[in-house]
Amino acid sequence: MRIRKGFLIDMDGVIYRGSQLIPGADAFIKALIERDLPFLFLTNNSQRTRRDVATKLIRMGIPAEERHVFTCAMATARFLASQKPNGTAYVIGESGLSNALHTNGYSIVDNAPDYVVVGEGRTVTLEMLETAVQMIIDGAKLIATNLDPNCPTSTGTRPGCGATVAYLETATGFRALSVGKPSPVMMRMARKELGLATSETIMIGDTMETDILGGVQMGYRTVLVLSGGTKAADVDRFAYRPDMVVDSVAEFAATPRRLDELVPTMNREDDSTHDLHQWKRTPA
Ligand SMILES: [Mg+2]
Q1: Residue 102: inside a domain, yes or no?
Q2: How far is the CA of 151 from the centre of ligand 1 (A)?
Q3: What's the 192 CA to ligand 1 centre distance in angstroms?
Q4: Residue ending a domain, choose from 178, 198, 224
Q5: CA 15–ligand 1 middle distance (angstroms)
Q6: What residues contact 140, with CB distance under 8 A and at least 6 apart?
Q7: Total count of domains within the chain
Q8: For each of the chain's 284 residues, which pLDDT tens digit applies?
Q9: What is the rounded CA–CA span in Å between residue 217 and residue 238?
Q10: Domain C-terminal end among 136, 159, 178
């Protein structure tokens, strides 16, 4: 029996840092394509649309297509569409988020929304925060695309979506629901997008609190790369650990056998696809 496996791959710190390609990342992706291994780029950045992300990757020499990209904005919009179809949202964020909401049947409004949806971006103003606070107090539900507190940039650190969300939570006393990594909502949706079982899914990322925690909680295999924000010495401080630690994904390209070491658990019991009709017929 052929072992099936596929990869969920974080981008910032794994494929690139800011606008710099991490050496060997392009060779890694090409190796996946050559071996016909399914993969999906998974990002907690809601700013860009799927197409914007694919273009950025292509310009760096990564042979990516739109179908290879899954953002927390897409996960959030799909989640809201399943919770309340054709709803309304007040958006603090940029085009990646508003686009995803529109694609999923949502209207963006500036009063009495079903949800206040928060992503990252440079457009947030005090007026927008004031408006959002009042909306939440009046009954709108607070949704976070992710809770990342900050994000490294080429010039230092910028506050992340989680910081904006914390502001709104403090002001209103209501807690947000977050959809991005490590939330199982996004982690599971991404796996389903690739058509893989839990036991066939491998998450590669540079952040313990999102990529690795998300993967561990879902029962995926996890690979921590040290090309981003985490140092080898940091790993022991966490109560969970990745299955493998590598300097960067270049290691997989240089030594393809390392890819084979990532054997899926093959334990399908936790996640086999159920035949719903059969299931209904089975006495409890
Ligand atoms: Mg990252």
Answers
A1: yes
A2: 9
A3: 21
A4: 178
A5: 9
A6: 90, 112, 113, 114, 115, 116, 132
A7: 2
A8: 556 889 999 999 999 998 899 999 999 999 999 989 999 999 999 999 999 999 999 999 999 999 999 999 999 999 999 999 999 999 999 999 999 999 999 999 999 999 999 999 889 999 999 999 999 999 999 999 999 999 877 788 889 999 999 999 999 999 999 999 999 999 999 999 999 999 889 999 999 999 999 999 999 999 999 999 899 999 999 999 999 999 999 999 888 777 777 766 555 555 555 455 555 555 54
A9: 14
A10: 178
Per the structure block, which two tokens stand in for 164? 């904006």
pTM of the model: 0.90
- Residues marked as catalytic: 10, 12
| Ligand 1 centre distance from Cα of residue 44 (Å) | 8
| 204 CA → ligand 1 middle, Å | 9
Q: Specify the DSSP class assigned to residue 200.
A: G
How many angstroms does the Cα of residue 265 sit away from the middle of ligand 1? 25
Strand residues in the chain grouped as ranges (E): 6-10, 16-17, 20-21, 39-43, 69-71, 88-92, 107-108, 115-118, 141-144, 150-153, 156-159, 177-178, 201-205, 221-225, 244-246
Same domain, 93 and 162: yes
**134 and 205 together in one domain:** no
